[in-house]
Each structure stands twice: as structure tokens, then as C-alpha cells.
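Cytochrome P450
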Amino acid sequence: MEDQYLDRGFSVLVLAIAVHALVFLLWKISKRSVDSEEEARFPRGPKGWPIVGNLPLLVSLPHRQLAELYFKKGYGAIIGLRLGTHRAVVVSDAARAREILLTHDKAFANRVPLTFVSEIFYGPERSVIFGAHTHRWMQLRKVYTLQLLTTKRLYEMREARYSEGRRLLRRLRDRSGTIVEPGTLIAEMNAAAMARLILSKTLDEVAPDMPQLMRSVQSKATPTIGDFIAYLSFTDAIFKMRMKRLHRRLNAALDSILEERSHLISRLPADQLPDDFLQVLLSVKTDDSEESTLTPADIKAIMSDLFLAGIDTSASTLEWAMAELIRKKECLLKLQKELDEAHKGKSDYLTDEDVKDLPYLYNVVKEVLRLHPVVPLLVPRISSTETTVEGYLLPRGTIAFVNVWAIARDPKIWDRPEDFCPERFETSTRDMKGQDYELLPFGSGRRMCLGIRLGMSMVTVTLANLIRFFDWEPALGKGVKSIDMGEENGLGSAMEHPLKCTPHIRKEFVNAFLT
């Protein structure tokens, strides 16, 4: 009922926007024009619409639309855009990406201040993913790198992930020969695994709505008109109400987690408390002062970052991997053969140690992330100082998009860039650690994804087990052409329609992973 009431407000917005269009035109007439030399030194780009400029390019699959400007419409590898009242550039080749992410990393260290960060999350001062580059942000980042996502801590907590992986395999064994949606099942496994890493319990016990909440957050965490045209921010009222409502649900779920832990702390001595991420967050110091403990809002912001990044991103990557392998059976069989030969006679769940020296497995993952990067445009940055890139003058406040999707499909770099071909990495030393700018699924520089180690572990171990213990085919009665490879619109990369396929437990593993 509330949504229906809110939707009726759109009719009012149409008239309001028309009125403000006139106001905008009058404002433009009276506004001092930009210095002609500065304008001439800004990268050229497509002509924009009145008021909104090039914003329509960001409405539907923006990485594809912006790549088309580079590949097909004759614009350069650095393209100038006008997004409402803001200037922006999009870079679509490796050399310019290196300029933004390495040479001018400090100048472009800030995130674009977006409404959803304040309305859904806990503000830019607390979010490590979306937050501004401040001293506080650097302190919070150290919490991740020195306390949460260290090699030692992930190793100590590996069994929580493995036990959820075994449970996934048992679920698939019980549904052998029937149609499943692997992406959905993997997301559920990830949610349970992340919960055990963060709070030593499954979400069913303390916050059962969290997986659905994270999916809602991903769909609602998009820029608004007011982010680019400040004087039209009044049009965001409906979206802000929805964001606030989502935040209340998210906050209640996270509060329930903190309350449950508070009760546990009151009952148990310190040496009997769980050694998990939450307990670390409750005790960590951000500096040497006594007042430097994290606030409840800080802890909830970090938990929401972890759940957001840890549930659907690796699930989407694995869903793409399964789709590509099922469509190209020879690659699936080659990977299965590598796994069988490396672990002949073993029927246990494969672990990080088991998969670390399997080159074709890692080539498959690289190729999936080349074709389907987690965030195709990366999370946009904004310059804090005037910057010169490739001779172009980028004023302070320029938004920068790095189109890693386009870079990974550039025919100047990649042979047959549209084809799924893991073998291309057999003769290539390119890696995904942020130093090879032709392949940047996790970004680079000081804003590079902090969870790369955990994410890669979850993807490689899960994929190895899915391929080792099961044979896979398209949904019953359908061929590989029935697999829809369309993309869902949004900041991340996900399949538009869930992959449906059929697992068949390999006969030698019918009684495996029972415990």
C-alpha cells in the first residue's frame, strides 16, 4: 500500500521537473561561462541532453554503453561526459586506467558522495567501500587489513567455510538429476559462511532476513537525480523514503546481532567468547587512545560492508563460471580432469591447500572475471585536486569511471576477446592483483578491494568442488543455447535470469562429504 502511494508521486514529479527545467535554463544564462581554454582541454565526448547531460548513458548497462563510445563511435580511450552539473570522464584502456589508479591515485582517492551511502548505510565517514578518503577511513581500513582479513585469521576460520561448502554439496547430491539454480544455492552458502566468520552462528539463528536484505540493498543502492543535479534533489524524496525504510530493516537486523553478542558477553568469561570478526570489532582499537574503540554504528557499517561484499559478489562470479563451463563442455571436462588427476583416490571436500597448485582452475577463474568483472565500472572516484591526464585538464571534482569491462574486451590486448578461453592465460603472466591494468576485476591502488584473498578462496574452492563431484548439463531437455547470458542492470555484474541446470553426482562420490 505504501509503495502504491509513493508511486503516485511520480505524476507530480513530471510537472515539477518541467518547472525546474525552466529555472535551470535561466540559471545557465546568468551563470558565468567556463573559461574557454579549460573547456578546450577537457576530453571530448558525446553531446548531452539539456539539464541531464549524458546521464541517460548510465541508466541501462552503462559499461556497455560507454564501451560502445570507445569501440564503435570513434571517441578516445578517455571520454568526457557531463552528468547533470558534474563533469566526468570514463577511461576504457589499460594505459589510462593506470594513470587514474596509479599515477593519480591520491588525487582520485575519494568516492563520489552518493545519497544511498547516507540513507541505506551509515554515512561516508564509516563505509570503507563507499566512504571518503579521510583519516578516519584509513583507520577503518587498517581494521580490515590488520585484524579481519589477514591470512592468519582466514586460515584459522577456514573450517567454517568448508563446513558450509560440504552442506552445499549434500544439498546438490540430494537433488541430483533435477533442475537447480546454482547461483541461489551458492548465495545461501555464502551467507551462512559469512555469518559464521562474522558471528560464529548461522543467520537463521540471529538475522534470517539478511540475505534478502542484501539483495534489496544491491538493487536500491543506485545514484539518484539529486546526486548529479543538486537543485533537483527534491525529486529524490520517494527514493529516500524507500532507502530509509530499507535502512531501518538493515539496522534492526544488525542490532539483533549486537544484542545477542552483548547477552553472551554478560554471561561468559572473556576466554570463552567466540574468536570471530564481531568479537575483534568489539575490542579493536583504531589508534593508541582509550577512546578509540569502534562505536556501534561503526561496527554495523563494517558488518554491512562485509555482508554486501561477501554474499552475492562471489555467488555471481560462480554462477557465470558455471554458465560458461556448461556452454563450453571441453573446458569443463579439462578442469574436471585436472582435479581428478591432482586428487586421485581422494573423496574429501577440497580445501585451499588442495587447489593452490592447479593452473587450469585459476585460468578458468581469471577468464570468468575477465568476461564478467564483479563491478564492471569499478566504484566511481572523484578528484580532490585539478589533474592532468594524457594532456587533458581534469578540474577538481571530476568523476572518474574506469571501465574494466571494456579494458578486458579490448581487441588490442586480447585475442578473440568475446570468447571464453581459459587457455589464453597459459602463455600470459597477467594477474588480478592490481598490477596488470589489462585485468582489474578487483580494482587497483588504495581503493582496491580488500577482500580479494577471501573472495578468491571462496570462488576457487567452491568451483573446484562443484566440478569435481558433479557432472553438469543444461536444464533437462534443453541445450546450451537455452542459457541466457544477459546481464542484470546495476552496479554489479549478475546474470539477468538465474542459471538453471542439472547436476549429476558422479558415481564414485555418492557417499562422499557425508560429514
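thats it. DSSP finds 21 helices and nine strands in the chain. The two ends are 47 Å apart (CA to CA). bye
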